[in-house]
Specification:
Structural class: alpha+beta
Radius of gyration: 34 Å
Number of domains: 3
Number of strands: 11
Strand content: 15-25%
Helix content: 40-55%
Largest sheet: 5 strands, antiparallel
CATH topology of the largest domain: Immunoglobulin-like
Strand order of the largest sheet: 5-6-3-8-9
Order of helices and strands: HHHHEEEEEEEEEHHHHHHEE
């Protein structure tokens, strides 16, 4: 991806001020202040840093804050110890035009992290720097995915980074994926960061996320597989699937076509409709599993007889098998009810009129 020179120049200038923030946000260490401290203590960066913008040399109070062992896990409590008085309530975090999320999947020796960038605003966001951290002790391996309209920028500074031309209003870009080798890393948590220039400069960061392992991923996939392969009337996806009645209308079509194809000695067509009948009945077994035993009791022997008649291309044998099949169907109707409604009123007979006038049943 090649950014235009004006855009690239603007973005690279912006990066000069953003890189320090990137490092602080996505890879904090005990000796580095992070914006999270300011949010949790209610203090400006100048409370702990000589530079009012943060970073660099610490003030005496900043050194005292850093020396407290719990300052990483309880910044507000540590600040209270240093200041001798409760800190003011943290100011609410400003809303961001961009949201950034990160996920990770772990194998035996590596982790693949994926970043998604979303723009919920009504404006196009342009000239972005998107980065994902690398856990301490891990090493960058490769950029796995680079979306259209962006280009991989660098793996220096403890982060994998991309330059992105724009994110459409109400749109998203991703995944930006990168692989790291675990090496000596113990904590594989990572986070993502975005900095943009236009229309208003801003930054956003994700929460730190630990990758899921292969075993966890397989367990989730198996749970989804089990859920989707076990009928449940409580699930919307199952409730919208066709039940027995619509499938029986399909079966009526198949048996009509099958009959007139056999009268025209078009055994290829007959064989096709037997196959379609079998597929329709298999679908009923999935969506209405309670009917499986009853369906198989009449269809399995009928299916075998119909196929044998087709192989022999014997109309008399087919007629006999066909009559047995519809007799079995009617026996099932007499013995069954659906939703408390008797099915005795549904009786299948040999068809007398083809369903479709635009078919030549003798075939090509």
């Amino acid at each position: 991806m090649r950014l235009s020179m004006p855009n690239r120049t603007v973005l690279l200038i912006a990066l000069a001020t953003a890189i320090a923030a990137v490092t602080a946000l996505i890879r904090p260490t005990p000796g580095m202040a992070v914006p999270d401290y300011a949010a949790k203590t209610g203090q400006a960066c100048a409370a702990c840093h000589v530079n009012p913008a943060g970073g660099g040399t610490l003030t005496d109070k900043g050194k005292a804050f850093q020396s407290i062992s719990t300052h990483l896990t309880d910044p507000l409590g540590a600040w209270n110890q240093v200041s001798g008085a409760p800190a003011p309530a943290p100011a609410p975090a400003p809303s961001s035009a961009i949201s950034v999320s990160l996920s990770g999947a772990s194998t035996d020796d590596s982790v693949v992290y994926s970043i998604m960038v979303s723009n919920p605003s009504d404006k196009v966001i342009s000239n972005l720097y998107v980065a994902g951290s690398m856990p301490a002790g891990a090493t960058f391996s490769s950029a796995v995915a680079t979306p259209s309209g962006s280009g991989f920028f660098s793996s220096d500074g403890g982060a994998a980074a991309w330059l992105v031309s724009s994110v459409a209003a109400k749109g998203s870009v991703g995944p930006f994926a990168y692989r790291v080798t675990k090496g000596a890393a113990r904590d594989l948590s990572a986070s993502a960061f975005a900095h943009w220039v236009s229309p208003d400069e801003g930054t956003a960061a994700s929460a730190a996320v630990a990758p899921i392992s292969d075993a966890e991923r397989l367990a989730v996939e198996q749970a989804i597989y089990n859920k989707l392969n076990a009928y449940s009337a409580d699930l919307s996806l199952w409730r919208i699937q066709a039940g027995t009645a619509p499938r029986m209308m399909e079966l009526t079509d198949h048996f009509n076509l099958m009959w007139f194809a056999a009268q025209a000695s078009n055994w290829t067509f007959v064989d096709f409709e037997i196959y379609r009948s079998d597929e329709t009945l298999k679908a009923i077994e999935v969506t209405r599993p309670a009917r499986t035993a009853g369906l198989r009791a009449w269809w399995q022997p009928a299916h075998t007889e119909l196929q044998e008649a087709v192989k022999a291309q014997d109309l008399a044998a087919f007629t006999k098998a066909y009559d047995r099949a519809i007799s079995g169907c009617n026996s099932c109707h007499v013995a069954s009810s659906g939703g408390g409604i008797s099915l005795k009123g549904v009786k299948v007979i040999r068809p007398t009129t083809p369903l479709f006038s635009n078919l030549d049943y003798s075939g090509n």
